[in-house]
Amino acid sequence: MTLASSALRGSTRFGEAEWQARVDLAAAYHLVAFFEMHDSIFTHISAAVPGEKGHFLINPYGNWFDEVTASNLVKIDIDGRVIDDPAGLGINPAGFTIHSAVHMARHDAGCVLHTHTEAGVAVSCQADGLLPVNQWALQYYGKVAYHDYEAIALDLDERERLIADLGDQPVMILRNHGLMTVGRSIAEAWKLMFNLERTCKAQLQLQASGAAITPVPDAVCAKTAKQYWDSYDAMASGTQKDIEWAAFRRLLDRKSPGYDS
Fold first, then answer.
1. What is the pLDDT of residues 138-155, one digit of tens each?
2. Could you give the strand order of the β-sheet that contains 74-77, starting from the edge strand earlier in sequence?
3. CATH number, span 15-255
C-alpha cells in the first residue's frame, strides 16, 4: 500500500484533522526514539484531538516509541478512559496523570511531551535548574516552571499543585524527575524538547569541564528569548512556515518510515 493510499484510508476512518494530528504525533514518538530520548516503554506524548473537546491521543502501552503509528494511537478522554484503542493494548493510566492536568488547565496545550533522559534528569536534580549560559538555553529564559518531586505520579491530587506551578509557561522541569514541554502544536512541543535536551547536555558538559562560566547579561538573555519566541509565535499563527518540522518529517521518511501508516 502506498503512502497516499494509507493517508486516504486513515483520513477516511478518523477524519482529516484527526489523521493529521495522528501522523504528527506518531512522528514525535519516532523522533524521540531516533534521538534516544525514550525511557523504554515509559513516558508519553499526548495531543489534543482537533475539534473534539476533552479527547486526546496517546501511545498504546507496551510499544516502543518507534512502534507507534498514526493508526495505532489510542484515543482517551480527560480522565484517561479509552475511547478507541485500535491495537487493543490500552494505556498506562499513571502516565496520563501529568498530561491530563495540563490539558485540563491549559486550553493552549495542543501537545504535552514528557521525557526521562539522562541529561534531563541530571539537570532536574540540580538546585539551580537550567542555567542561561548558552544560546539554546536562552530561548527558555523566563519560560521555565519547576515542580517538586512527589513520588511516581499516581496520585490525582498532585495535578492541582503541578498546574499551579506550571502557570502559563511552555516548559517545566519536574525536579528529581525529568522534563516536560507544552506546545501549541505537536511540532512546537517537539522542537522545545529537542532544544531543551541539547541545552541540558551542554550544561552538564560545561559543568564537568570545571571551566569558569561566562555569564550572559539579563538584557541579552531577554532579547534572545524574544527573538526565539517571535519565531515560535509566527509559526503558531501561520504567518511563518515551519520548515524545521518539515525537515524532521523528511528525516523520519528516510530513517524511520511507517510512522504515518
1. 999 999 999 999 987 666
2. 82-84, 74-77, 55-58, 45-48, 111-115, 178-183, 171-174, 144-147
3. 3.40.225.10
